[in-house]
Amino acid sequence: MFRKLPDPAAPTVTVTIDGRAHTVAAHETAASAALLAGMGATRRSPVTGEPRAPFCMMGVCYECLMVIDDVPSRQACLVTVADGMRIDRQPGARALDFGGEDA
Amino acid sequence: MAEASYDFVVVGGGVVGASIGFGLARRGARVAILDQGDAALRSSRVNFGLVWLQSKGDGMPDYGRWTRRSADLWTGFAAELRELSGIDTEHEQNGGVSFCLGEAEFEQRRNTIQRMHNQVEPWVYETRMIDRKEVEALYPGVRFGPEMVGASFCPHDGVSNPLRLLQSLHGALKTIGVAYRPDAPATAIRRDGAGFAIDTPAGTFRAGKLVLAAGHATTKLAAPLGLEAPIVPERGQLVVTERVAPILPIPASGVRQTRDGTIMIGTTHEAAPDLTTRTTTGNMVHIAERAVQVLPDLARLRIVRSWLGLRVLSPDGFPVYMESETHPGAYVAICHSGNTLAAVHANDLAEAFLAHRLPERLDSFHPRRFHVSQAA
Ligand SMILES: Cc1cc2nc3c(=O)[nH]c(=O)nc-3n(C[C@H](O)[C@H](O)[C@H](O)COP(=O)(O)OP(=O)(O)OC[C@H]3O[C@@H](n4cnc5c(N)ncnc54)[C@H](O)[C@@H]3O)c2cc1C
Ligand code: FES
Questions:
Q1: Alpha-carbon distance A46 to B282, whole Å?
Q2: C-alpha B176: how far from its chain's center?
Q3: Which CATH number covers residue B258?
């Protein structure tokens, strides 16, 4: 569904999307990288459980919340990829596990 | 312009006016509710949502009794609204707490609760102090900060989603045939025979009786009709976190989790010399810090929204209800805690306004209590 315009000269980084390594252009966001990797639904709504995916790609709709480097509820469309970044689906509302480290 | 005539015109379509209008219409009156449009100052849209007894009535026992009456009526009220509007107000009444940080605060709270108990019949508040262990039992699995030594707990306290409440009220008003006119704010009100004529940009409305429940705008509308509605506006700011899986089963004053998972943290109490609604970071940091002292893990959550609301507060914080002596049939209703009181407004207060004279049990709420020099 998503196709990148060819840009052979763009520098790349390697990220882990849903547990698998992908090489992506360094200017991608976590959201665009996930879409290009064919992830489809990137989260489930914490209210209805419906599958959702990035929509506005500019920070206003909050549809793109994902777990990035183990931090839940990040707006993936506002996060530029970095080498070694882990990008995971968010399954519903994040859990607030008591006793975790304060970030 | 066409002139419309009603038994009652209610000026103001926030939770107070809507509840009263609903109660009047349910009892057979033909009612119109005049309101401003979407951009109006409307406390009913910005509040914390508690249906709350444990802090009410210190210094005015009748307010404690009135609030308890409303808490008792709320479940039936919510069911009635759901049936008529198809909208769930998300009302729950499983008790509520007020957390205490440190022994000194706990003792102070204990004294306040005791003092409030001493002013009323024992059944009214039924609020008691609980220690940290008992608090933990109410919130299974939750980690509290070391300073949280205990809380006051009231079994009658609860919560409802304030936006759903307002939406549900308006849905129900439509179902039962109340004319709701957000295009027709009152600009002038006159005596008209035995009733009243209310001028609006959408024409003149005529009514046998009149209720002013226009929040912050009530004071000005009231004066020419021999009514008083003294208001000392107060700012309240709150912050809302991202959604998380359910962790807080019952509400606390200052921190509660909504059905959708967000955690609301509130609220500041600040003087409001003007009616601006601009937020200020410093005060929000203060309430967030307190919430984190109670629940340290909140610090890891993202804040997604914040806002400021203006409380419709009388000088002593208690409601004001009165009928005009110079213009009988004209009433004022202003209060803080319009959600809490919505059920009693839709029942007992509506009945009082339908009656020939206000019942004695409403005497305490008359604004003559502010006439200090006359009382002395
Ligand atoms: C931060 C905050 C937290 C709160 N938390 C709680 C809580 O937890 N529980 C609780 O019970 N209460 C709470 N409250 C209080 C509650 O919000 C108010 O008591 C309630 O909203 C007051 O409702 P109202 O209808 O009197 O006023 P409003 O909601 O302000 O409505 C007044 C209405 O009158 C209309 N109006 C004005 N002028 C005219 C005119 N000339 N003609 C026609 N219409 C007019 C306005 O457009 C508006 O619709 C809180 C308030 C604040 C600010
Ligand atoms: S896609 Fe809309 S906020 Fe990220």
A1: 31
A2: 23
A3: 3.30.9.10
pTM for this predicted structure: 0.91
Residue B299 has a CB neighbour count (10 Å cut-off) of 12
Q: Contact, B49 vs B162, CB < 8 A?
A: yes
pLDDT band per the 50, 70, 90 thresholds, residue B374: low
Which residues, other chains included, contact A29 with Cβ-Cβ below 8 Å and sequence gap of 6+?
A: A57, A76, A77, A78, A79, A80, A81
A40 CA distance to ligand 2 centroid (A)? Answer: 14
CA-based nearest residue to B62, from B343, B259, B349, B319: B319
Computed on alpha carbons and rounded to an integer, the radius of gyration of chain A in Å comes to 14
The half-sphere exposure of A32 on its side-chain side, counting CA atoms within 13 A, is 19
- Evaluate whether the domain defined by A14-89 bears CATH number 3.10.20.30: yes
- Compare all CA atoms of chain A with the CA of B242 and give the residue at the minimum distance: A73
* Beta bridge partners of residue A71, listed in sequence order: A68
Residues 6+ apart with CB under 8 A from B208: B6, B7, B8, B194, B195, B196, B329
- Chain B residue numbers with beta carbons less than 8 Å from the beta carbon of A50 are none
Q: Which of B142, B243, B302 sits opposite A93 (nearest CB)?
A: B243
Q: Answer yes or no: is B71 within a domain.
A: yes
Q: Is the CB of B261 less than 8 angstroms away from the CB of A99?
A: no
d(CA B197, CA B3): 10
* Token reading at B155: 């079994």
CA of B196 to the centre of ligand 2 (A): 53
Assess if residue B27 is contained within a domain. yes
* Residue A9: band (very low, low, confident or very high) from pLDDT cuts 50, 70, 90: confident
Partners of residue B143 in chain A, C-beta under 8 Å? 98-99
Confidence label for A103 from pLDDT (cuts 50, 70 and 90): very low
Residue B360: is its pLDDT beyond 80?
Answer: yes
From B43, B199, B306, give the residue whose CB has the most ligand 1 atoms within 8 Å, as the site to mutate: B43
Q: Nearest CA of chain B to the CA of A92: how many Å?
A: 8
